[in-house]
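Lay summary. Proteins are chains of building blocks that fold into shapes, and those shapes determine what they do. In this project we predict the shape from the chain. Here is one chain we studied, written as its sequence of building blocks.
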Amino acid sequence: MPTRRRALLILFGLSLLALLSIGLALTAGSMQVPPASILAGLLGQDAPGADIVIELRLPRALAGFACGGLLALAGALMQVLLRNPLADPYVLGISGGAGVGAMFGMLLGFSVLGVDSLAFAGAFGAMLLVFGLAHGDGSWTQTRLLLTGVIVAAGCGALVALMLTIADEHKLRGMLFWLMGDLGQAGEWWPALLTLGVTLLFAMPFARELNLLARGQMQAQALGVSVNRLRYAIYLLASLATATAVTTAGSIGFVGLIIPHLVRLAIGNDQRLLLPAAALAGGSLLVLADTLARTLIAPQQLPVGVLTALIGVPVFLFLLSRQSK
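And here is the predicted shape, written in a compact code that computers can read:
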């Protein structure tokens, strides 16, 4: 168990990394903006290039941080809920439901607000469907919940493929970018950031019970944990975090899978430290990946989900090789 001082140092270091990643996102881009103009823009003053920072780069960086934090936090919660190290925020079909809603909105030519609304409705519908099917006879097991989520995700994937097949060619690029994850299409940043704060605020009081649940259901029940109530709370919080992140930036893979593993490797499995650390690390990673995505071949931009996958695959293979040894 880490000492209080070490925990504070780790959280301080990750907070500093988050600030540095956002600062880099404000300075990097196809158009160079002097640091004085960036500072002036942040202070609400007029300066050359300050409008680019305030209207484009800052909202995108904040949205990226919020989405990365939400995905990492949801991944950490899912791995405890399912007691499966391969669990990630998308394993229960929530992303697939959001994809169905978003693709349907794009297919009908809806505005960004309409697409986001349908994406969130699809995610919420998938959450209710998985929840209802997994509790058809009142039972609740990790295996049943996982299998139900996989089947729902497969069905949503088939619907998404169908809509991509019948979509007009001029709509395909936007639809594919959404499916690969793209912060360039993110609308308002504050709902995702607010959801991150609320999710973390409600998850932290359950941290001690999560530590006990991670050791096993029987042991947690013997120590006085209301396992069913805790599972409902975890599922709801993780689903809300995933739905908000996917609605804001599309399907960005590997953040929710890799970050909890890396944080756990560095600081251990104490959820009281793991949850906030994962949120900070996930947000920082996604901001850095998005900065690279929009500057690597500027002025063209890459979907950030492509870069997170390219980063996540070798990292995950390294973790697997480390475990096998």
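What the prediction tells us: The chain has one domain: 4-324.
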